[in-house]
Amino acid sequence: MKAHPSAKISELPNGIPNNLVPYITQTAAGLREKLTVFGSDYDTGDGSSIRDFIHVVDLAEAHVAALKHSVESTDEIDVFNVGTGNGNTVLELIHTFEEVNEVSVNYEIGPRREGDIKAIYTDTSKINSTLNWRSRFSLRDSLKHNWDWEKNLRGI
User: Fold this and answer.
1) Nearest to residue 5, comparing CAs of 51, 61, 63?
2) Across the 156 residues of the chain, what is the mean pLDDT of every consecutive 10-residue run?
3) pTM
4) How many CB atoms lie within 10 A of CB 51?
5) Total domains present in the chain
6) Looking at the domain assignment, is residue 59 inside a domain?
7) Which of 9, 40, 128, 150 could staple 25 via S-S, CB 3.0–4.6 A?
């Protein structure tokens, strides 16, 4: 998720957002009529797919840790998975956004998209142990920061 805690910088997609969180914030702000949740028949707790939603500051800090490691390491190449290591369903994300920010998101359930999978999230054990890196921001923090940025941008 791409908003800085200061609410001064974030992702501003050109046209219709391709990422879920900007679509949620724009729908909550009234720029989009509704959000479509693609699929309700996945084998998950609520039927929606599972993804790993990471705060942009955590992602940036992971990149810095990896760069420092590359300078200090004698290995030619090293690869790390970066994420929270936890998955949340799309509906969990929407409901958490609504709860944290005390705002409603107009959404509907649509059919699955071709190629979408049930779940994808990271195994962070290597980056945790090798770089001593862990994500610091919670899903709630991330969703609050994204809504604060959207409100700041739109003057809400």
Assistant:
1) 61
2) 70 84 95 96 97 93 94 84 96 98 97 95 96 96 94 89
3) 0.90
4) 18
5) 1
6) yes
7) 150
* Strand 107-110 relative to strand 50-51, pairing: unpaired
Task: Quote the domain boundaries for residue 103.
Answer: 20-154
Where residue 37 falls (left for φ over 0; alpha for ψ -120 to 50; beta otherwise) is beta
* Pick from 40, 50, 150: nearest CA to 101: 150
136 located within any domain: yes
Bridge pairing between strands 88-89 and 50-51? antiparallel
Q: Is residue 96 part of a domain?
A: yes
CA-based diameter of the chain, in Å?
Answer: 53
Residue 8 is assigned to a structural domain of this protein: no
24: CB partners within 8 A, 6+ apart: 35, 93, 94, 97, 105, 146
Which CATH number fits the domain that encloses residue 128?
3.90.25.10
